[in-house]
Amino acid sequence: MADNLSDTLKKLKITAVDRTEDSLEGCLDCLLQALAQNNMETSEKIQASGILQLFASLLTPQSSFKAKVANIIAEVAKNEFMRIPCVDAGLISPLVQLLNSKDQEVLLQTGRALGNICYDSQSSKEQFASTNIAEELVKLFKKQIEHDKREMIFEVLAPLAENDAIKLQLVEAGLVECLLEIVQQKVDSDKEDDITELKTGSDLMVLLLLGDESMQKLFEGGKGSVFQRVLSWIPSNNHQLQLAGALAIANFARNDGNCIHMVDNGIVEKLMDLLDRHVEDGNVTVQHAALSALRNLAIPVINKAKMLSAGVTETVLKFLKSEMPPVQFKLLGTLRMLIDAQAEAAEQLGKNVKLVERLVEWCEAKDHAGVMGESNRLLSALIRHSKSKDVIKTIVQSGGIKHLVTMATSEHVIMQNEALVALALIAALELGTAEKDLESAKLVQILHRLLADERSAPEIKYNSMVLICALMGSESLHKEVQDLAFLDVVSKLRSHENKSVAQQASLTEQRLTVES
Hints:
Rap1 GTPase-GDP dissociation stimulator 1, elongated, endoplasmic reticulum, RAP1GDS1, ARM-like
């Protein structure tokens, strides 16, 4: 077979140039056969032979071998190492032109070839962006009525649409209007083909919204017909459309202007209604998407109070019993966004024993780092934003203190800092209540380590010293501080390059000297 293959490749080089029809067809069949037997090895030989460059001339609309050549390209492009060579051989442009063919087999093989070349390959997508493939595909799509054909075009569109430049080209070529039409036609059908097409169409619509420019173009200041149509998906009875609608809103909610506009125009109520329909044995993907949308909408400061008074926290808390980590993760993120600088809401949630107990339980979710991190951050946020003794007492009673102490050793500076600030508030407001837990969590030893470690960020050193001073009010913790020779570490920090750290070191040193 191997010798046979080298002969075929040699022969092809000659016949491709002088176009001897019969022998050319024989050579192409021989290649397809070899690819069927050992795709990878044959592809390597095809690349080494330099024959790819000749394929472009066999892909012209006049060529009688275009379907076979496209089939060969589709086969070799299953191998990642062959995708860039196919682009470099100039095969994209002739393949795109073939999408206008009336011949079913040519269309099928061309679609496969394009789909395989751009599958997962960033650089080949960039090459596609400089062709008119977006326009050609959309034109072709508008003409197609048959399900299989449309699915084939979808398969080429989806990987291409991952490239932001191509997203914008597809939007400008009118793909969105086609997709909205499909959704409208298929939404009430229970035929399998229609259900597939509805899913593919609405998924692709959401993918187009992942590009900043394409998303903003479709939002049109919230007046866009596309935005309005997507809004109407949320109250629909079709799970796939509810999901796509919620994901679309989460994507539109990627900048403050859009978020403020949407909250002012009643989108929050629509999302809350949707979540209410999915509380009991709800659809997890819909729950996750709707919570993602609410979390994004809660980012602008001006939206927080509006969303709180609309009752978002009550709706979100209905999902506390969820056992699905993705839903838990989004629920936590949404609550954390909502209480940022909202003292009253933070106090109300922080006194909610059910919530705090669930947070403490999730702080131990070792298998789900995301849920664990978000639970810790929310515990700390409840204290930082409420500055309330009652909240601190609730967290102490539920066993949350040890988690905040562990959080101070996180690898993420932002989390360490949030933990230290919360612990300093605990020490300032309710030291007596928390004293035992702080001791058994070995807080003082951890602070000594953070101050002695040269890699600790300046804000970590600063907040650790503030915390040390606050702990002096407790007899047992004060004794631990004395036993650990903190003075040595602190006096070294008086010459720290960061002014605030140096200043805090002097203050802490005085405090330690006076109290020793």
